[in-house]
Amino acid sequence: MSHQVTLRFEDGATHFIQCLNGESVADAALRAKIAIPLDCRDGVCGTCKATCESGNFALGDYVPEALSDDEANAGHVLTCQMRPSSDCVVQIAATSDAAGVSNATFTGKITACEQLSATAITFTAELENRSELTFLAGQYVNVQVPGSNQTRSYSFSSGPSAKEVSFLIRNVPQGLMSSYLRDRAKPGDAITFRGPMGSFYLRPIQRPLLFLAGGTGLAPFLSMLDKIADDGDVSQPIHLIFGVTNDEDRVELAKLEEYARRLANFTWRCTVANPDSPYPYKGYVTQHITASQLNDGDVDIYLCGPPPMVEAVRGWLADEGVRPRNFYYEKFAGAGQVVQTGEEHIALSDVDDSFDLRLALELGAVQLTMGRLSGAQLADFRQLADATAAFVTGKRFTDVARYVQANHAFHLFLIEASGNTPLITLYKQLAVQDYIGRALREDIEIVGDIVQQHRDLVSAFEYGDINAAREVIARHAIHSKATMSRALGNKSASSAPAPAPQPEPARCPFSAMAELPPYSHEMNWPQELQPFKVVDDGSQGDPYEHYRWMRENAPVLRCQSATSDVWFLSRYDDVWQAIRNPKLFSSEVVSPPPLTFLTLFDAPGHTRLRKVAQPSFMPLAIEPFAAEIERRAEALIDALIAKGGGDVVEDFAIPLSIATISAMIDVPDEDEEKMKFWSDETFSYFGRLARNAPGTGTDEQSAMAFFAYLKEAMERLYLSNSQSIGGHIARMWKEGLLSEKEAKELCAFVFIAGHDTTTILVANAFRMFAEQPHLVSRIRQNEADAERFVEEVARYRGTVQRVSRMTTEETTVAGVTLPKGAVVRLLLSSANRDSRKFADGDTFNIDRDTSGHLGFGNGIHKCLGQPLAKLETLITTRLIARKVADIALDPAHPVEYVRGNNLTNSGPAHLYVQLSRFKS
């Protein structure tokens, strides 16, 4: 099952994608090779924020800093988390060019052309690529005028499923397109247009519709009616008022009559503005709008016509005090150009302001009436409170219209009882009742027990308790605003995700202690495990047994280092919460950051720098390198097989990852070896500066040499206008968006991020095949399992072991209080083995659901090189499955681990395997 998602870009272009059931919009866009704004893909950074204009969806998991409640209620979404449950229209905050898509071009031939009147022409075209054209009823295209290089914008008058497309256009005496159609067009003529475009289109029908068309502005409504008729009759009434200037402008009336026969709930009227017309209906469209059609404001109005008409209707609605639930309009000029499209809704900020003013007035009324109401008045007040209960059951309204009336009478009672004329006058000017009537629906879940609050307010008056009355009114205002916020969201109530069940807080064995817990070296570790240390001395190179013990016995472990205490979090829930809360767990553990490495920055510095590097690592950006990666990988694995095996780190993973990132940065092949040396040394230098890790003794000098080399390389790349990552960073530097220091160090970071994660993940893929050789034949038989294998490798033996944070405030984790300024290490690889999250987490199982694993981190600091690491590992996995028969760890060479660096790695430094070639 899939849903059609319409992506509408800032330049008016629209593009249609299919979103699979349970798939995020961002993933669907990437699958369609559309580069919408995207970064962390975890609902943390907010880069992918967009607006859902119509449709139902689940918002997904995100942090408030990325999407506030007000934004969510206003229809904003994060495309990386949004999962549609119906067809949706999503407005993307980017141009179509920036997303790598442009309006499609459609070609065909004219099949019919008719001048309907002196002022209107219709033509129909058969397209060569009709199956590729998808549009929303009401949208337009830019038609190239035959024989010229100019275009004109025309709305479809045919529905989205019609075999041929048709247009209704105004016949302008000197118009370029009009002249062609009127004087020269004939069946068989070629026609070309680009599109579709525009935000004027039919939304899902949830309430009565009022269509207002002026002249050839009837075209989009014919398309909408065709769509409605194809979908089947609807229960909501639809009324169209077609306004023209003179009798001769009354065109396509037979089509309207046909739609009236097909659609039981559709009615229409044509009106002629010329007072001398003999036509029975005369005047402007506004003179023929009835109260029933406005439905007390609970109506969606669509308006298309020339600018004066649009402004006249908008002015009339304002003068009449009519606030439709939704108002969509499109203006067009006589020359065939769309001038403006727009829409108006109830603004949540206006609603909140009105409810806040009602609160203030009601508090004033309480002050004036407390202790002054008679027994009869109190009885009436109680009766009004009880009356609202008849229209509410549980958390739902049973009759919104009658509830609105009863609720208004209840709230008005105290105001009028005050006898204060200015207060009463001001209260009656509020739009609260109007807003409630237009927004509430039976499917909206009520926040709080509003009926009981009505009764509680009466009780406060009966007891003469003014403080209780004020408290009830204040609480009632909060709950009323929250209910309205739900009602005004652009999603249905059912589209909101169900709240995730909250696990019972993890209990730490030291939670009852008033003093700090003991250090790691003071604890009773199992005999086979040495106490866990801040810096690995070789005793914890494969740390998973340490992690297992820590999760169960010390989920918040305190370790002693030379400069400060360091706290290690090992359980999934604790790590997940911390890594997604950068305000409390800051990445700026060294201030100011000594190097321009993204992992050392919080926003806004991190945001600015990541925007420079991140686009080059997106899946669509690295896809062109896939063929070369596969070529290199195949040559390396053939050499490995030819000699019966070897060190997969030195003989395969490192040369593959270094060659790939070198090509992406655009450095010469002959410099790859020294780039690898400098990269390792700079990583050591980085760790020593940022995390108090031991260095190599020569790391600082090597890092400076690396930076000098990269500066020289970027000078060259800038002059050659290289389109590589290095060239991109160079242009940012030369254009003043980065300093020289930032450019050099950021380029170094990109190189390290691009190969280090890949080296570890690829090596661990070999290891898992060696430990579970049956998976080779399984993936050989079903290559689709390769992706599941890679994700499970990333979970089970992830590329990022740990990340460092510093608390900005005192906080409690698993019952242990961490002071402000505490240095905290989040053990991602331990979290990935937590059986509370992943059943039997210490077992490698490619059939498990790995969603939510932290193998590449999470949030704004999610591994920059993740897409590249996964691509290279996926290519490697498929090659092993195709080419290797038997694979095993070499018993003569035990696995050796990276040691000493306390930044991220605890992967293999050397990993030897034995393997043989598969003969098909």
Automatic annotation (TrEMBL):
InterPro entries from the xrefs? 2Fe-2S_ferredoxin-like_sf (IPR036010), 2Fe-2S_ferredoxin-type (IPR001041), 2Fe2S_fd_BS (IPR006058), BenC-like_FAD_NAD-bd (IPR047683), Beta-grasp_dom_sf (IPR012675), Cbr1-like_FAD-bd_dom (IPR008333), Cyt_P450 (IPR001128), Cyt_P450_B (IPR002397)
Domain (2Fe-2S ferredoxin-type): residue spans on this chain: 3-96
> Any keyword DNA-binding?
yes
Question: Which region is the signal sequence?
Answer: none
Query: Which NCBIfam families does this chain map to?
Result: BenC
Family under the similarity heading: Belongs to the cytochrome P450 family.
Q: What is this protein called?
A: Benzoate 1,2-dioxygenase electron transfer component BenC
Its lineage opens with: Bacteria, Pseudomonadati, Pseudomonadota, Gammaproteobacteria, Enterobacterales
